[in-house]
Amino acid sequence: MKAVIQNEFGDSDVLLYTDVEFPKIRENEVLIKTEYTSVNYADIKKRMGNKGKGELPLTLGLDVAGTIEEVSDDSSFSKGDRVIAFPKAGSYAEYVVANEQLVFKIPDGLSFKQAATAPTVSILAYILIHEIGQVKKTDTIVIHSAAGGVGSMLVQLAKLAGVKKIIGTVGNISKEGYVKNLGADVVCTYETFVEDVLKLTNNSGANVIFDSVAGEVTSKSLECLALYGTLVQFGNSSGKLGTFKTSDVHSSCRNIKGFSLGTTRKHDPARLAGVAEKVLELFASEKIVLPIARVFDLSEVAQAHKLIESRNYEGKILIKL
């Protein structure tokens, strides 16, 4: 079967479209024929060796939408089921294997293409909004990288939850229209968001800030986080560590919470089933939708990575198999 592998860490040129051995399932696993997989920023970091190096050769990719081809004994799934899943050994491949706990049925009427936008970013965003950030309708919130995949979901889910004021940040203000169309009330750049947030809140600050950028953005976020506010840290796309002092939190009664979907998939996968069902229902009822920036063929994965790295896109990038 065809897959994309890499034998070394580096830029997108290390991605090799080639033939690999057909995968085999074990107990409590299913074999899935991939229809679509998505490209996430975590793929870029792992390709470069900056995120859990792993053993080479390796296949990148976090999630798939496809059809179950084979199940183990006493499985709750059947051949022909349409599903999304988090495969155990990458998803840039025609066939993948996933643990049943990380496989979720797609509702009738929801296309593979739209379902493929959902797994990583929407499940993550739902948990961030409702479980980690515990956002309330009366809150003013800030969503960094609001035009990206997770940001696009956070904005829509916050709007759906009736949040009072949603502020999105972007690297380029040309993305303002896109983010506002998703439901943001105000869009600003990383250079101006501190003063903009303070101005919009009469200097009281935002109640919840969602930070996937880290680096300088983390420390600047604390400059506009309200008393008793929460900074939710769930990534470092800047490639730099965000820092804060203990004095930034205790006297102001503020919280800093961290969350990783990867850690949760590994250590608490049962936590995801209920969330997956909810977000897939939201997609099926068209209450949320993730715009697709571009669809590439599997043989064009290197081009997809270059587009992700350029940050010159809005929404989700998919790979069609």
Describe the protein:
Strand 9 (165-170), helix 5 and strand 10 (186-189) form a beta-alpha-beta unit. The N and C termini lie close together (11 Å). By secondary structure, the chain is an alpha/beta fold. 27% of the residues lie in helices and 26% in strands. It has ten helices and 15 strands. The model has no long low-confidence stretch (mean pLDDT 95). The chain has two domains: 2-117 and 290-320, Medium-chain alcohol dehydrogenases, catalytic domain (Quinone Oxidoreductase, Chain A, domain 1), CATH 3.90.180.10; 121-262, NAD(P)-binding Rossmann-like Domain (Rossmann fold). This is Quinone oxidoreductase. Residues 10-319 form the Enoyl reductase (ER) domain. Keywords: NADP, Oxidoreductase. It comes from Sutcliffiella horikoshii.
Brief account:
This protein has 321 residues and is α/β, with parallel strands linked by helices. Helix content is 27%, strand content 26%.
Q: What's the number of extended β-strand segments?
A: 15
Overall tally of domains: 2
Please describe the biggest sheet, giving its number of strands, its sense, and whether it closes into a barrel: 7 strands, mixed
Name of the CATH class of the largest domain: Alpha Beta
The CATH topology annotation of the largest domain reads as: Quinone Oxidoreductase, Chain A, domain 1
Number of helices in the DSSP assignment? 10
Given the C-alpha coordinates, what overall shape results?
A: globular
Task: Tell me the distance between the termini.
Answer: 11 Å
Helix fraction, binned, reads 25-40%
Mean pLDDT over all positions: 95
Low-confidence segments? none
> What is the element string, with H for helices and E for strands?
EEEHEEEEHHEHEHEHEHEEHHEHE
> How would you classify the helix and strand content by structural class?
alpha/beta
Question: How much of the sequence is in beta strands?
Answer: 25-35%
Q: Do you know the CATH architecture of the largest domain?
A: Alpha-Beta Complex
The rounded Rg comes to 20 Å
CATH superfamily of the largest domain: Medium-chain alcohol dehydrogenases, catalytic domain
Organism: Sutcliffiella horikoshii
Domain Enoyl reductase (ER): 10-319
Keywords: NADP, Oxidoreductase
Pfam families: ADH_N, ADH_zinc_N
